[in-house]
């Protein structure tokens, strides 16, 4: 135990580890807030699709050779989010299919581009790191850290300011519309927020695991809590705790950051699920 | 002066017309019941009045100082709400959103308003409970309280008793009549239940093959004539 503490305190002297912690916590917080909206609006599949789009965009950024990937990944993902949400509104089934189509297409094109144009000697390592985010959280540049912090703070502010509106639009869009709430505007805001959070979260857990970061905390919280506010608060706490524990464990045990965080989330979900069952059977 | 006047409405989805050339008016404080078989376009008409869907032709005007966002609405229930984690209080309060404008949070007045309608609909003991764990009748009261928070002039209700047992149905009808009489709120209600059309409302609008628009007494008379014309024949449902 003492040994572990010693090891941790040693690691924490490095600024990149400190940055990783800060950014990780903020991203986890954003992802969980967003998750509440996506799960309750039944938009989980859009979050999943967008994470694949972000992978394709990342591949383009790599090929173009930008140092700050977000300059490309952010606009592409935001654009796709807006288009997908539009489409999903008009007809549900074809909306589903569209998301699936866009998502596999981005994966295929992304991998193809990287394969053809990559100059790196460790191709599969690069791809794996983009998919599972093994180390990217530790290799953020100073600029990226600040961009992450500012954008996360902005996302959280948007969520708090629009909290009541988001609740109304999520619970019953027709009623909100009928009583004069500009629901399309809020859906647009939600789409943009999803895209931004997906791009940010790619740094933490990689594009394949983003969905887990978004939906698990909410699903866990919904097992135990029954009002909107308590679900939001609980999923935020669960998400941040899992991110911190996941990162600490991965530092000490040398496991991949993303997978460790997701496993922590799965464990919490299991525990909450058990508690729910035990409570129910009494 | 009439509060809502609809002239020569043509309503439908895209090029498909569902209701053609419909005109009617609703006075302030009136109770209008819309009846008709399933699929005759009752919900579509209500959604069009609320601008949830475009009007093909004709005109819908709200007068008497009612703004569109001051209309309360109780939608036909959607399955999406079934597993939503939300407390009764959160849902009722969300009816006040149209009063907030750009202000992000509810003020004391709005909370008082929500409390007032929770009291009036006799759901005070439930206010901390989870919506999805309530009975059908309790859920409809919650949605009715939310609709009342959104308006002080006009309520639009789409089959509020569709999934309720007979006792809960009668209770809800009584409450709606109370709201109409005591608060002076105009009520437009869709129902497939003839008790409303023959007992509670002021006017009846029937859509479908044998359309009708007139007062409740006229409607009862027209039913009797129809009944005498074809003994044992169809009674509207
Ligand atoms: N989204 C839609 N697109 C096309 N047609 C629809 C849609 N919703 C309902 N309809 C059709 O419109 C007609 C009227 O539906 P509705 O207004 O729900 O009837 P009611 O409420 O009177 O039972 C039905 O024939 C239905 O098939
Ligand atoms: Mg209907």
Brief overview:
The complex is a heterodimer of chains A (282) and B (237). Helices cover 84% and strands 0% of the residues of chain A.
Tell me what the structure shows.
- The complex is a heterodimer of chains A (282) and B (237).
- Chain A has 282 residues and is mainly alpha-helical.
- Chain A has helices at residues 2-11, 15-40, 44-64, 70-90, 92-117, 123-132, 142-161, 163-171, 173-178, 183-205, 210-224, 228-253, 257-281.
- Chain A has one domain (2-275): ABC transporter involved in vitamin B12 uptake, BtuC.
- The longest helix of chain A is centred in the first third of the chain and has 26 residues, at 15-40.
- The termini of chain A are far apart.
- The mean pLDDT of chain A is 85.
- Chain B has helices at 42-49, 88-94, 97-100, 108-120, 136-150, 166-182, 194-200, 216-229, and strands at 2-13, 16-27, 31-35, 57-62, 71-74, 154-158, 186-190, 203-206, 212-215.
- In chain B, strands 5-6-7-3-8-9 form a six-stranded mixed beta sheet, with helices on both faces. A three-stranded antiparallel beta sheet of chain B has the order 2-1-4, with helices on one face.
- Helix content of chain B is 36%, strand content 24%.
- In chain B, helix 2 (88-94) packs parallel to helix 5 (136-150) and helix 4 crosses helix 5 (136-150).
- Chain B is built from eight helices and nine strands.
- The chains are: A mainly alpha (282), B alpha/beta (237).
- Chains A and B meet through helix 8, helix 9 and helix 12 of A and strand 5, helix 2, helix 3 and helix 5 of B.
- The complex binds adenosine-5'-diphosphate and magnesium ion.
- Adenosine-5'-diphosphate is lined by residues 13, 18, 36, 38-44 of chain B.
């Amino acid at each position: 135990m003492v040994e572990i503490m010693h090891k941790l305190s040693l690691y924490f002297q490095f600024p990149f580890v400190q940055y990783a912690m800060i950014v990780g916590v903020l991203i986890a917080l954003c992802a969980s807030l967003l998750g509440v909206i996506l799960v309750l609006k039944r938009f989980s599949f859009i979050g999943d699709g967008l994470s694949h789009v972000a992978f394709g965009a990342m591949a383009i950024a790599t090929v173009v050779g930008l140092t700050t990937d977000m300059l490309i990944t952010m606009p592409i993902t935001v654009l796709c989010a807006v288009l997908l949400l539009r489409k999903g509104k008009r007809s549900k089934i074809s909306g589903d299919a569209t998301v699936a189509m866009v998502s596999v297409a981005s994966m295929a094109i992304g991998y193809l581009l990287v394969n053809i144009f990559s100059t790196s000697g460790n191709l599969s390592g690069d791809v794996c790191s983009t998919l599972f985010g093994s180390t990217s959280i530790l290799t953020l540049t100073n600029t990226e850290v600040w961009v992450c912090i500012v954008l996360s703070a902005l996302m959280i502010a948007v969520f708090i300011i629009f909290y009541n509106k988001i609740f109304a639009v999520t619970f019953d869009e027709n009623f909100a519309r009928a009583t004069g709430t500009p629901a399309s505007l809020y859906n647009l805001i939600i789409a943009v927020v999803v895209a931004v959070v997906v791009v940010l979260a790619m740094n933490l857990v990689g594009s394949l695991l983003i969905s887990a970061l978004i939906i698990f905390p909410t699903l866990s919280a919904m097992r135990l809590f029954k009002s909107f506010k308590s679900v939001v608060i609980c999923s935020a706490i669960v998400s941040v705790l899992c991110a911190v524990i996941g990162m600490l464990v991965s530092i000490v045990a040398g496991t991949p950051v993303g997978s460790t965080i997701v496993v922590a989330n799965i464990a919490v979900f299991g525990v909450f699920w058990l508690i729910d069952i035990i409570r129910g059977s009494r | 002066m009439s509060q809502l006047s609809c002239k020569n409405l043509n309503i439908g989805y895209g090029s498909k017309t569902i209701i053609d050339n419909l005109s009617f008016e609703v006075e302030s404080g009136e109770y209008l019941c819309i009846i008709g078989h399933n699929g005759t376009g009752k919900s579509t008409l209500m959604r069009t009045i609320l601008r949830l869907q475009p009007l093909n032709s004709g005109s819908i005007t709200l007068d008497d100082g009612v703004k569109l966002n001051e209309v309360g609405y109780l939608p036909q229930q959607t399955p999406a709400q079934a597993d939503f984690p939300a407390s009764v209080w959160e849902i009722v309060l969300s009816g006040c959103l149209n009063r907030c404008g750009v202000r992000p949070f509810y003020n004391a007045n709005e909370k008082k308003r929500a409390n007032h309608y929770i009291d009036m609909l006799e759901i005070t003991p439930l206010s901390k409970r989870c919506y999805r764990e309530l009975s059908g009748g309790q859920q409809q009261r919650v949605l009715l309280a939310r609709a009342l928070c959104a308006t002080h002039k006009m309520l639009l209700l789409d089959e509020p008793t569709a999934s309720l047992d007979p006792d809960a149905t009668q209770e809800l009808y009584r409450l709606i009549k109370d709201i109409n009489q005591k608060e002076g709120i105009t009520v437009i209600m869709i129902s497939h239940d003839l008790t409303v059309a023959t007992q509670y409302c002021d006017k009846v609008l029937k859509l479908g093959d044998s359309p009708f628009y007139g007062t409740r007494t006229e409607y009862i008379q027209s039913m009797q004539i129809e009944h005498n014309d074809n003994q044992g024949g169809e009674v509207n449902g």
